[in-house]
Design goal:
The complex is a heterodimer of chains A (396) and B (369). Chain A is α/β, with parallel strands linked by helices. In chain A, 48% of the residues lie in helices and 12% in strands. Chain A folds into two domains: 3-293, 7-stranded beta/alpha barrel (Alpha-Beta Barrel); 309-394. The termini of chain A are far apart. By secondary structure, chain B is α/β, with parallel strands linked by helices. The model of chain B has no long low-confidence stretch (mean pLDDT 92). The longest helix of chain B is centred in the N-terminal third of the chain and has 21 residues, at 73-93. In chain B, the strands form two sheets. Chain B has a seven-stranded parallel sheet with strand order 3-2-1-4-5-6-7, with helices on both faces. Chain B contains 14 helices and 13 strands. The chains are: A alpha/beta (396), B alpha/beta (369). The A-B interface holds A 20-22, 314-316, 318-319, 357, 373-377, 379-380, 383-384 and B 220, 224, 311-312, 314-315, 322-323, 325-327, 329-330, 334-337, 339-341, 344.
């Protein structure tokens, strides 16, 4: 009997201001000069109105309507929570209310949605996981049992670290590279760690996330009963449907009928005797691992490549990434808390994502999310800011 | 299909994008089995056709003048006189059975309109620039505007080299948009050379091309990074620009080459590290494609037609010399940026072929035949 494990990533980055070479060395208040507060607030409020608030309300209704049989999980990044606390506390309240129903689970991740899991050592990664842990404790008084790294980036080293930090499960992409012939609809364990791995069923997840409104897709139009039928006919223990929360109302606009689809989905799913819903914690508790996952190189859920080339696929990205790590070493020696926090905000993976020059198909997705016209502009802006921060790290 | 194309300049004797365009277009069309009689003024040296479908017919005698408005009154007078003489001669000399006439810009419009009426065949007009561009939108000369408007009105179809130019033709000349087809320009591959620490401006030294903004950006860059700035081309702003460079205290870093030969142009593209096209008003800007073809990362003005179609280049406002300098400095500092841009832009311009231009132009012809 497959359990449907619905999980949503909720994240907003702190987008950058235009920062020219002439600004380097002339900044005083870095927070307001590095980050475009006006744009960020505008985007956050727009997405909250179109997606976060209506989707939260809908899910709260559905959970109540089906008496807790409809179960979901969230991962909220630290930057997202900071946005809520600054601009829209009632949004955070609405997440708290969802959590109080008992049908909602919370997932751990790095506070800054960073690529720190790919650094030469994992100290910074561990710090950011702990910061997230403290935040969830503070707001929800809860300790997550399942971890998902930024954009589901996963390798053996990260799995080992997460097991050491006491988590029961980890989420990543159901990529062929690690699965081979095997199905993502089972729980696995890392070859080198005592942990359970949940693998995203990317076909079924992307049917909603990417293809829902694609008229040239044979599955169009996707209705709740059709989708529930597909899942009922699926083989396995668990169907992991992981997607960006912004799918609802932002990537797929309200006009596409996405909210109607969601509204009817729990009812249609529960019509099938062989289907139910489970949170990520329940999925790792309920099912035994059926095999090993070995991932010496990092995979992720991004783009067609499903590796880290989305963030580190060209030399501009690698140059920034190296600069970022170098600044970190300098700042850690210095121990300036303000600068360290700024450095961490700059680690948010989106900044590198905007510099991706990947091909047409994927590039289109990138362009949609990017505040820059072209990746080269993203590079110059980010690099200029890093140079300014580096000067500060080296002086004072 | 047989057409009469009326041009002004043709390689190897050319002063700008018009000659490059006519060469690429006629060869692209010839490959598609269109027979072309290409009419042009007779120059000191004979221009020979290198294609059996292209027949070059020289009419009258003139020198190749830059087709802007020279400050030099005497030269200007000679130039207009030459244009008039050429147009008059064309009306007498163009004979034969053609499916249509195709002319380029105001230089040949008068003759083309007269010939259309005399021969009773359709007229296609390609607009490479308008008086508004050439005057950089400062006091456009009504005399040119009127010639241009008449040609545009009489033409059966108009080809504009960019959406930007199409918009000017609609808004400033009152032409119906349905009559206008946009066909962006193309480039013949140039090939890369060994790069030196040179930042290049190439074009006529006129207000339209914005060389003074290039100098202002140079001054800002030189406060941070060392490089040589090359200003290649001739024009009436040359003395003023030299003076400006001296005044800014950067004359030891700025090289004025004067007018370059075709070989020298190719060479300078190949050895330059960055190409900047800060035009105030640029209907297309083939030089951006040429620079990219030579492996040179390129910064173009947002008011250039090429910026509509080219993704892998920087786009700045021509007046925003801070941003221009910001981009030049980043390109000088970061190999990763330079290499990424060079590679992606070279890949991208493989789509800009004269074959594509000829195909689109032929579509326009077919619509009339």
């Amino acid at each position: 009997m497959p359990s449907i494990c619905f999980y949503f990533e909720v994240h907003q980055p702190f987008r950058l201001n235009h920062f020219s070479v002439f600004n380097i060395g002339n900044t005083r208040d870095f927070h307001s000069t590095y980050f475009n507060q006006h744009l960020n607030q505008k985007i956050f409020e727009k997405v909250a109105k179109k997606c976060y608030l209506p989707t939260n309300n809908l899910f709260l209704d559905l959970i109540r309507k089906y008496d807790g049989k409809f179960r979901i999980s969230y991962s909220l990044t630290g930057t997202f929570v900071e946005y809520c606390e600054k601009y829209l506390p009632e949004l955070l309240d609405s997440f708290k209310e969802l959590f109080k129903t008992g049908a909602v689970d919370l997932i751990e991740e790095t506070y800054f949605h960073s690529l720190s899991g790919l650094y030469d050592d994992l100290d910074e990664f561990e710090d950011q996981v702990k910061m997230h842990r403290q935040m969830i404790k503070r707001i929800f008084n809860y300790k997550p049992k399942v971890f998902r790294n930024t954009e589901a980036i996963y390798d053996n080293r990260i799995a080992q670290k997460i097991a050491d930090l006491g988590y029961k499960g980890i989420i990543t992409e159901g990529a062929e590279r690690i699965l081979g012939w095997r199905s993502p609809n089972f729980v696995y364990k890392p070859v080198n760690a005592n942990l359970k791995v949940l693998l995203r069923n990317y076909k079924l997840s992307d049917d909603v996330g990417f293809r829902f409104s694609a008229r040239n897709w044979p599955g169009f139009p996707l209705t709740a009963d059709k989708y529930a039928n597909w899942m009922s006919n699926s083989f396995g223990d668990v169907i992991n449907l992981f997607m960006d929360y912004e799918t609802f109302g932002e990537h797929q606009w309200v006009e596409t009928g996405i909210f109607e689809f969601l509204k009817h989905l729990p009812g249609e799913v529960l019509k099938h005797d062989n289907l139910d819903f489970a949170t990520v914690s329940e999925a790792v508790e309920r099912y035994n691992a059926v095999g090993d996952i070995d991932s010496p190189w990092a995979i992720s859920w991004a783009d067609e490549d499903r590796n880290v080339s989305t963030w580190l696929g060209n030399n501009m990205q690698i140059a920034c990434f190296n600069e970022l790590k170098d600044i970190g070493r300098k700042l850690k020696k210095k121990g300036d808390r303000d600068l360290l926090y700024i450095w961490r905000l700059l680690q948010t993976s989106d900044h590198l994502y905007y510099i991706s020059t990947k091909g047409f198909e994927d590039g289109n997705v990138h362009a949609y999310f990017s505040p820059y016209d072209i990746p080269y502009d993203g590079f110059i802006n980010y690099m200029n800011i890093l140079q300014d921060l580096k000067e500060k790290a080296e002086s004072r | 299909m047989k057409i009469a194309m009326i041009g002004w300049e043709y390689p190897p004797f050319k002063v700008g994008g018009l000659g490059t365009h006519c060469y690429g277009l006629t060869h692209g069309l010839a490959d598609k089995n269109v027979h072309i009689d290409f009419y042009m003024p007779k120059l000191r040296q004979k221009v020979k056709s290198d294609n059996k479908n292209i027949n070059i017919i020289e009419v009258g005698e003139t020198e190749v003048y830059p087709y802007d408005r020279p400050d030099d009154k005497e030269l200007g007078g000679k130039f207009f006189e030459a244009v008039y003489r050429y147009n008059d001669l064309l009306v007498q000399r163009v004979k034969g059975k053609y499916d249509l006439i195709h002319c380029h810009d105001w230089l040949t419009m008068k003759a083309a309109v007269a010939l259309k009426e005399k021969m009773g065949v359709p007229l296609v007009l390609t607009v490479h620039s308008t008086e508004y561009d050439r005057s950089a939108w400062i006091y456009p000369n009504q005399w040119f505007v009127d010639i241009e408007r008449e040609g545009m009105q009489k033409a059966d179809r108009i080809i504009a080299v960019s959406e930007f130019t199409k918009r000017v033709i609609v808004e400033k000349y009152g032409i119906h948009p349905d009559k206008i087809t946009v066909v962006h320009n193309a480039v013949y591959p140039i090939g890369e050379g060994e790069k030196r620490n040179l930042i290049l401006f190439l074009g006529r030294l006129t207000i339209q091309k914005g060389p003074e903004f290039f100098l202002k950006a140079a001054k800002k860059v030189l406060e941070f990074e060392d490089a040589r700035f090359v200003i290649a081309g001739a024009g009436d702003m040359l003395p003023r620009l030299i003076e400006q460079a001296v005044h800014m205290g950067i004359s030891n870093k700025v090289i004025f080459t004067g007018k370059l030969t075709e070989e020298e142009v190719q060479h300078i593209y190949k050895i330059s590290s960055i190409y900047v096209m800060p035009s105030v008003s640029e209907p297309f800007g083939i030089t951006a494609l040429e620079a990219i073809s030579a492996g040179t990362p390129t910064i173009v003005s947002k008011s250039a037609g090429v910026s509509e179609v080219l993704k892998n280049c920087f786009k700045v406002d021509f007046w925003d010399t801070d941003e221009m300098a910001n981009k030049i400095i980043a390109l000088l500092r970061y190999d990763s940026l330079r290499d990424a841009m060079r590679q992606s832009s070279k890949r991208e311009i493989q789509l800009f072929t004269w074959d594509r231009v000829a195909e689109r132009t032929l579509d326009v012809y077919r619509g009339l035949a």
